[in-house]
Amino acid sequence: MKRLALLLVGALAAPGWATTLAATAPAGQPSRPNIVVILADDMGFSDLGCYGGEIPTPNLDRLAAGGLRFTQFYNTGRCCPTRASLLTGLYPHQTGVGHMVEDRGVPGYRGFLNDRCVTLAEVLRGAGYFTAMTGKWHVGQTPEYWPRQRGFDRFYGSEAGGFYFRPIAQRKVIRDDTVLYTATNPPPDGWYSTDAWTEQAVGFVDEARAAGKPFFLYIAHNAPHFPLQAPPDDIARFRGQYMAGWDKLRQQRHARQIQMGLVSRDWPLSPRAPAVPAWEDVRPQERERFDQIMAIYAACVERLDRSVGRLVAALKERGLLDNTLLLFLSENGGNAESGPNGRLEGPGSPGSGDSTVFCGESWATLQNTPFRRYKHFNHEGGIATPLIAHWPARIRDAGQLRHQPGHVVDIMATCVEVSGAEYPARFKDRPIQPMEGRSLLAAFDNKPIAREALYWEHEGNAAIRMGDWKLVRQGRNGPWELYDLKADRTELHDLAATKPELTGQLAARWESWAERANVKPYPPAQPAKKQAQPNKKKANP
Fold first, then answer.
1. Of 50, 79, 117, 415, which is the active-site residue?
2. pLDDT 10s digits, 190-214
3. Would 84 disulfide with which of 95, 211, 364, 462, CB 3.0-4.6 Å?
4. Which candidate in 138, 221, 254, 407 is catalytic?
């Protein structure tokens, strides 16, 4: 197996920027590493080529071949909470973003970053870094909570994202604190958000170079979040490739994941959800429709990969790639919203700026191969993300896998350690909560990450992982399920009834954390239409 994994890594590797380079910074450049964090939106665990997917992602595959792939890295299962945790090193409720951006009147659910947390930009700017962000913010809608008010020197993006060719209603494109484009004042023809976020990011890199500072760059994509939109030529390249259907493609992804060492062959592929039909039962005209939906999704992912290639090429051209820590991950698992049929609606042509396309539950089962459930949930399909770490000056084991469990709360601790910054006990005369995460540098060296447990909660869905044991539930009143992830990471064998003492101990730990981390008090109920979970009528497996 190890020999096969090495052969696969060699196949991914390409001459050029994926090779291991010297450990010194380029002449005239700061010795401290630059830091780039790239976040995808609604992308499943298995969508990248280097994680078993059939979508061509050569640029991310080369980063993986020149760096590390984490097999057990986690997000929070939803967009706003993941962004809050990534930016602060805290669990989302501790930041005030335990749900989305509406203020629900209790400390854990205010809908914006509170004054008891600090962002990566605030911490790293204090250490002399140039701090810049492009893309989707989504942790505070109004100007007093925008990126420039939370430590970023420069910003080009949206307060909430969710668009490709032009802002949708209520959304904006902003440079620093100035609104540039809206739904009624759209950007020029040819503007595409995935490309624009990266083009502006390269400009911010040049500003940092001119200032003679190391930089922290956060690129927060909205791709491949619905409504899925991509240029027609990109979509056309994928038409027909998904006529094989989700059942066969899931099996193919799973087989590649086993070959790569990403998952154990002892973990069976999770069964298709009850609401999702067998592909052989889908009518021919409906197969064409489903193929078109997934082709648009694949085009969004491929365009995202191309944007990563553009950034990496720019860093290499400037002599910066060797001494740049680059992290790539997704904010939640594939999205089942719109149910098994998804959406493919006009009035524009499918995938255009006037269309509305959702993958839905059927294709989300493919995106999250081999796991159960989706975005919103705390089962593995909702919270497992790829993590690629690339840093030639520091990472010695290019192309290897790392199986240590990690979480987005660890990114703050990692950045603090590699930059030499200090995480403050007080900031602007306010007490700041201690970091919850641990540095990933130990894992870079293939050492364990010392921690007691990892925790989750979203919309009543909840989980705790302690060692290889995971306790998880669906909904606030759902029963706890217990899984041994070493033997059963696809969560098919619930051991709660046979291990009641361990179940009770883990549940008590979760309750203690929930009280400490502002999960409780729970927010008042709100209309289900805004945050309805998919497929309420039919439970997932």
1. 79
2. 999 999 999 999 999 999 999 999 9
3. 95
4. 138
